[in-house]
Specification:
By secondary structure, this protein is α/β, with parallel strands linked by helices. Strand 4, helix 2 and strand 5 form a beta-alpha-beta unit. Helix 5 packs parallel to helix 6. One of its GO terms (cellular component) is cytosol.
């Protein structure tokens, strides 16, 4: 694998991240980590809310300093305690200390805000995160599942007040779920953020599992008989492209996701080393333009207002004058 810089920082991260949400069998996870490291992978994604995932990762992880560990806070540690959830300082401090203990480390490479908390001022969150960075317990910060305007405001405040800004954004993204193309992805690219994307296989729909008979055993999280017409269209297009290119459907789906922007770092979640090896093949796959068109034509996506309106206006001389089509874009 090759490496990219994490957002505007100097941290080197591999082009595929490894999700650890389904950590269960320690022996198999040692094999998975070895396979991932041997391929050059170095980004491990977990969260305080992933059951015993953090603890299991801390148990099986060797060569800790060779990995970039990212974990998250926000979700409740205790449903009966109103202050055991949210993005406020108290929950951040207690969640961070618990994650450090579970992961058996004294620092977190990337600490993610798991989801926007409408009740906590973003100023409080950014100051608390910056304090943890200054204390050496966190090296970099990111934010997940949050509106674009909140992220933009937070990073602008951090810039004005000389505090640590978010370097990464974590969001769902795949051929069936392209919502981030409306606001989140353009915002991240404008701020120079890395975008770690979860569910690149749409929870198994784009992995080839849709071809399995109803009720068949396997790693997918769905019964093929329950798929919608839209999901079947996407799975069929992925299968067609995979057959044409001599690739696996999962590799095609991941390659489509990572090819949409240089900012994107897909998170692959697996249950076996063999499944990981298969998914890692996506980094060697570049989809031709006709394959991309075939995939995107199979599943309608409407960018909505204002994206579609701006795209229509941009080449219009009435809006930007006679030079509307003669200006070269920065990117």
């Amino acid at each position: 694998m090759r490496y990219r810089l994490f957002g505007p920082t100097g941290l080197r991260v591999s082009e595929l991240a490894l999700g650890t949400m389904v950590l269960d069998d320690p022996r198999e996870w040692r094999r998975i980590l070895d396979t991932y490291a041997d391929a050059g992978g170095n980004v491990l994604d977990t969260a305080s809310a992933y059951g015993e995932g953090e603890s299991t990762l801390g148990t099986v992880l060797g060569r800790r300093d060779r990995f970039v560990i990212g974990t998250k806070y926000t979700l409740s540690r205790d449903a009966k305690d109103p202050n055991a959830a949210g993005n406020h300082r108290k929950n951040l401090v207690l969640s961070l200390e618990r994650s450090l203990r579970r992961l058996r480390t004294d620092y977190i490479d990337i600490y993610w805000v798991h989801i926007w908390d409408r009740h906590t001022p973003v100023e409080e969150t950014m100051r608390a995160l910056d304090d943890a960075v200054c204390a050496g317990k966190i090296l970099h910060i990111g934010i997940s599942d949050t509106p674009a305007w909140v992220v933009a405001r937070a990073n602008t405040l951090a810039q004005w007040r000389d505090r640590t800004p978010f370097a990464g954004l974590q969001v769902p993204y795949n051929l069936l779920k392209r919502d981030i193309e409306r606001e989140l992805l353009p915002m991240a690219e404008a701020f120079g953020l890395s975008v770690t994307t979860w569910a690149p296989l749409a929870r198994g729909v784009l992995s080839g599992a849709a071809d399995a008979p109803a009720g068949a055993p396997g790693p997918s999280r769905f019964d093929p008989a329950t798929l919608t017409a839209r999901e079947r269209a996407a799975a069929g297009a992925v299968r067609t492209v995979a057959d044409e290119l001599g690739a696996h459907p999962a590799q095609v789906a991941i390659a489509w996701t990572r090819g949409k922007s240089a900012a994107i770092l897909p998170i692959v979640g697996v249950r076996s080393a063999a499944q990981l090896t298969e998914n890692l093949g996506a980094v060697e796959l570049t989809l031709p333009e006709d394959a991309i068109r075939h995939l995107e034509d199979a599943v309608e996506f409407d960018p909505g207002f204002p994206s579609d309106f701006i795209a229509q206006c941009e080449p219009d001389p009435f809006v930007f004058g006679d030079a509307a089509t003669k200006v070269d874009a920065r990117r």
